[in-house]
Design brief:
Elements (H helix, E strand, L loop, with lengths): L1 H15 L38 E4 L2 H9 L8 E10 L11 H4 L5 H6 L16 H19 E3 L4 E13 L2 E5 L2 E6 L2 E3 L7 E3 L7 E3 L5 E4 L2 E6 L2 E3 L24 E4 L3 E6 L2 E7 L1 E3 L6 H4 L5 E4 L2 E7 L3 E2 L3 E5 L2 E5 L19 E4 L3 E5 L2 E5 L9 E4 L3 E5 L2 E2 L2 E2 L2 H23 L31 H11 L11
C-alpha cells in the first residue's frame, strides 16, 4: 500500500512539474568515474589496476575478511566481488550467531528491570541479576563487534555481483583508509543485540545502538555509488517496547562520516526505512578535527522514510543536488513528523559551522499535517544555501525555512542564557546567511538537472544497485 501511494505521488509530481521537453536529459548513471568531491585531491580510483591475484570473489564473511587482507598486503590495489548474501553474524563454520552465542544468559527484559519501572536510574542492587546483566551487555557487545566489524583498507573496490549481492548485518568500517570505491551493494544495517539505555539522553531517556552499516573515520577519497542502505528485515517498529512506550532501538546509522573524513561522493544510492540515517561530523566539540574537512557530495540519491539525518552535518562543506526525498507523517514504520507536528523528523540538518549547498533537490511529504517544515532543520548552523528546490510539486524556499529555524533557536538560546545570568553561546550571536563561503562549481564539474520531473524520473529509475558485474574498479 505504501509503495503504491508513493508511485501515485511520483506520478502526480511528474504531471505537475515541467512541460514536455523541459526535462534535461538524464546524466550517465553508470559511470566508471565519480562526480563531486571524490574527484578532488588525488582522485578516487579504488582498486583499479589490481593484479590478477588481487581480484577476489567472496561468498562468506570469512572470505571477505581474507580478501580485505589481500595476501598480507592490504593496501595494494584490490577488487572484491561480493556474490550472494553475506552475513556479519556468520561464524567461521557458517553458523548464524545470535545474542546467546555472544553472551549466554543475556536477557534484555532483565536488563531493563534494573533501571526501575520508569527507566530513570540503574541499580546493581535492584535485582540479584543486575550486576550480571550489566557485565553481559558489555561483553556481548564487544564480542558482536569483533565478529561483525570488517575494516576496508586503502586502494580497495568492493562490488556487488548478481541480483542478491548484499552485506547483511556487517559493520563495515573505514579507519584512515584512502581511495576506496563501494558499488552495487545492498547493505542491511546491523542489529545490535546489546543496545544501551541512557536515562539522561533527552527529556525522557533514549536507546543507543553501536553499529552502523558503513562508518568512515578519517577516510579520504571515497566513492559510494549505486548502493542500497536500509534496516531491511528488522524495522524498529517490530522491536520490543521499552520505557515510556519507546521501541528499543537496535540500529545506529546507515552511513556515518567523521573525524576529518574528506573528499567523498555518494551517488545513485537508496537510503530507506531508518531512523538515524546519515551523520557527518560526530560532535560540536570536534571542530579541531573536522574544520576544513568533511567535504562531501550527494547526488541522485533516494531518501525514503528516513526519519532524520538525510544528512545531518557539522562543519562540512556538503553539496546536495538532484536528490529525491520522500516521507509520510503516517508511515507505519518510520513516520516523518517535523517540528510543526511536535516531532523531530527532518531531511537536511544544518549543524554547527556546516556549509550546505543544496541545488535542485526534490521533496515529497504526504499524510495528515504534512508541510515543508520537514525539509530543513537547524542545529546551530547559520550558513545554508538552497536553489531550485521543490516540495510536493511546487517551488519551495528552503533558505527561508532554515533562516526562521536558526533565528528561533538562537533567540531561545540567548533568552535562556540571560535568564541564567551566563553569556550566550557563540553560535547564537551569529547572523543567518546564504553565503556558505564556497561554490561547488569552483571545485568540480557537474551538470544538475533543473527539472524536478527529470530528477524524480532519474532517481527512481537509476538509484540503487544496477546488478552489473562487468566493472573493474
Amino acid at each position: 500500500m505504501r509503495r503504491r501511494a508513493y508511485a501515485a505521488a511520483a506520478a502526480l509530481l511528474c504531471a505537475l512539474l515541467g512541460a514536455p521537453g523541459e526535462a534535461a536529459a538524464a546524466p550517465s548513471a553508470v559511470s566508471d568515474r565519480p562526480t563531486g568531491w571524490a574527484t578532488a585531491g588525488s582522485g578516487t580510483t579504488g582498486g583499479a589496476g589490481a593484479a590478477p591475484d588481487s581480484v577476489h570473489v567472496v561468498r562468506t564473511r570469512a572470505e571477505l575478511k581474507t580478501a580485505l587482507a589481500n595476501h598480507g598486503d592490504p593496501t595494494a590495489p584490490k577488487v572484491i566481488r561480493v556474490t550472494g548474501h553475506l552475513s556479519g553474524n556468520e561464524s567461521d563454520d557458517g553458523r548464524l550467531l545470535g545474542a546467546q552465542d555472544y553472551a549466554p544468559g543475556w536477557d534484555l527484559r532483565r536488563y531493563m528491570d534494573c533501571f526501575g519501572p520508569d527507566g530513570t536510574a540503574w541499580s546493581d542492587d535492584r535485582y540479584e541479576w543486575c550486576k550480571r546483566m550489566r557485565t553481559l551487555r558489555v561483553t556481548g557487545s564487544n564480542a558482536q563487534k569483533q565478529r561483525i566489524q570488517l575494516t576496508v583498507p586503502s586502494n580497495t573496490t568492493i562490488l556487488g555481483t548478481g541480483r542478491d549481492a548484499a552485506l547483511l548485518g556487517v559493520y563495515l568500517t573505514v579507519n584512515t583508509g584512502r581511495n576506496i570505491v563501494i558499488r552495487d551493494l545492498r547493505l542491511e544495517a546491523p542489529v545490535d543485540h546489546f543496545p544501551s539505555w541512557d536515562p539522561g539522553d533527552g527529556a525522557t531517556g533514549a536507546w543507543n545502538a553501536r553499529f552502523d552499516a558503513l562508518s568512515v573515520v578519517t577516510g579520504r577519497n571515497i566513492w559510494i555509488d549505486h548502493c542500497a542502505f536500509s534496516d531491511g528485515r528488522y524495522p524498529t517498529s517490530r522491536a520490543t517496547v521499552g520505557f515510556h512506550g519507546k521501541r528499543v532501538e537496535h540500529h545506529d546509522g546507515l552511513l556515518d562520516m567523521e573525524d576529518g573524513t574528506d573528499f567523498v561522493t555518494v551517488s545513485y544510492s537508496r537510503f530507506s526505512d531508518h531512523e538515524k540515517t546519515l551523520l557527518i561530523g560526530s560532535g560540536d566539540g570536534k571542530g579541531d578535527r573536522d574544520r576544513g574537512h568533511l567535504r562531501i557530495t550527494f547526488h541522485h540519491n533516494l531518501f525514503s522514510d528516513t526519519a532524520q539525518r538525510s544528512p545531518r552535518v557539522r562543519f562540512g562543506q556538503v553539496h546536495t543536488y538532484n536528490n529525491y526525498f520522500r516521507g509520510s507523517t503516517d508511515d507505519p514504520d518510520y513516520p516523518m513528523r517535523g517540528q510543526a507536528l511536535g516531532g523531530s523528523s527532518y531531511f537536511l540538518g544544518a549543524g554547527l559551522e556546516s556549509k550546505i549547498v543544496s541545488e535542485h533537490d526534490v521533496f515529497a511529504h504526504t499524510g495528515p499535517g504534512a508541510s515543508p517544515d520537514i525539509t530543513v532543520a537547524t542545529f546551530h548552523g547559520h550558513q545554508f544555501s538552497a536553489t531550485g528546490a521543490s516540495y510536493n510539486g511546487r517551488r519551495v524556499d528552503l533558505n527561508r525555512i532554515a533562516r526562521a529555524k536558526f533565528e528561533a533557536e538562537a533567540a531561545q538560546a540567548r533568552a535562556e542564557a540571560e535568564s541564567a545570568g551566563t553569556p550566550p553561546p557563540e553560535w547564537a550571536l551569529r547572523t543567518f546567511t546564504t553565503d556558505t563561503g564556497w561554490t561547488p562549481a569552483d571545485v568540480y564539474r557537474y551538470r544538475p538537472q533543473r527539472s524536478p520531473r527529470a530528477v524524480i524520473r532519474t532517481v527512481l529509475r537509476e538509484a540503487g544497485p544496477t546488478l552489473t558485474s562487468g566493472r573493474s574498479r
